[in-house]
Amino acid sequence: MTLKSKFSLGVTAIAAVALAGTAAFADFPERKIQNIFPWAPGTVAHGVSQMIAEGMSKRLGQPLPVVATPGAGGVKAFNTALAAPADGYTIFDGYVAPLVISPMFGRADWGCDDFKPLWSATSNAFAIAISPTEDRFTDFPSFIAYLKANPGKTAYNGNGLSLPHMVSAKVLQSLDLVSRPVPYDDIELGMKDLRSGVLDWLVVNPGVYNANKDNLKILVTLSELESVQRTYDGADKAQDFGIDLGISGLAPMGWNWWLVHKDTPQDRVDILNEAMEATINDPEVRAQIEATGFVLTEYSPDQYSEVCNSAREQLESAKDAITWEEEAVKAAN
């Protein structure tokens, strides 16, 4: 065989390998894709992720199970997903707790930019609620006026370093208000004490609101999203009164953003993104999700770094607000 013939065979072999690689990307996905969900199965959050996964599965032509992997505040799920090959067959259900909050407390060593984003998924937005019989304050401006005139004399459900407490403390700090946090492991327990007068106001999520509408009046949503207003039956948002809560975007709510390993080939990321975008724009899927009280956030992949890092910076400040609150309550009493 001549040198020229050997060279020709080599070029042919290289071309064949390249074509095989292209075909492999074109055939993606060839088997099931899994979404690693960081909490227990059977919850509303699990069901909402399943709604998105089912829509994507129809478009991708492969199963997309949502695999509940609870443990360590969501860190176990992230470590499980990180241990899988970076081939597009494993999706991180990137909830704010493992993605942003765990690194803040030294329980994980990743940041927003250590992953490739798909579309943002959903939020579980918080609101400030009172008893319908409350007459000391009946709207958000009168609530602010009362707390300002009575620092440390009211109480609400503030549980340790939980996300709702961090958000609440930041809002109070921004408005220079002092209220006493009372720890509850479950918002429903706080509901009982709101009705009995032990608590003066409550931070709620849509699930608690939907289960207790007759016993709650929403003063204000802590998100500026209009879709959140719809979730709370048209309740006011702070911006309606020209009030700046000092926290915005994704920061004042629970949220998740679907992600993949940062080394995942972009060809495959693009395919996943196309399927996810079509799913979250499907009117039937949207209606199913909104019926649960969750809200689609709809940030695009190219907005991920700015939005996620902004939420992280604001939550760092919200974490510090709890320390501020502890000192302010002591000073007021």
| Overall pLDDT score | 92
Roughly what fraction of the amino acids lie in strands? 15-25%
Query: Which segments are poorly predicted (pLDDT under 50) over 5 or more consecutive residues?
Result: 1-25
Compute the number of strand runs.
Answer: 11
**Number of individual domains:** 2
Report on the biggest sheet: 6 strands, mixed
Walk across the major sheet and give the strand order.
2-1-3-10-4-11
Oligomeric state, counting identical vs distinct chains:
single chain
Task: Determine the CATH topology of the largest domain.
Answer: D-Maltodextrin-Binding Protein, domain 2
Categorize the overall geometry: elongated
Give the CA-CA distance, first to last residue. 95 Å
The class by helix and strand makeup works out as alpha/beta
Quickly count the helices: 12
What CATH first level of the largest domain would be assigned? Alpha Beta
Radius of gyration: 24 Å
Helix content estimate: 40-55%
The SSE order reads: HEHEHEHEEHEHEHEHEHEHHEH
CATH architect. name of the largest domain: 3-Layer(aba) Sandwich
What is the CATH homology-level superfamily of the largest domain? Bordetella uptake gene, domain 1
Walk me through what this model shows:
The chain has 333 residues and is an alpha/beta fold. It folds into two domains: 140 residues, Bordetella uptake gene, domain 1 (D-Maltodextrin-Binding Protein, domain 2, 3-Layer(aba) Sandwich); 139 residues, Periplasmic binding protein-like II (D-Maltodextrin-Binding Protein, domain 2, 3-Layer(aba) Sandwich). 47% of the residues lie in helices and 16% in strands. The protein has twelve helices and eleven strands. It has a six-stranded mixed β-sheet, with helices on both faces. The chain has a three-stranded antiparallel β-sheet with strand order 8-5-9, with helices on both faces. The longest helix is centred in the C-terminal third of the chain and has 29 residues. It starts with a helix and ends with a helix.
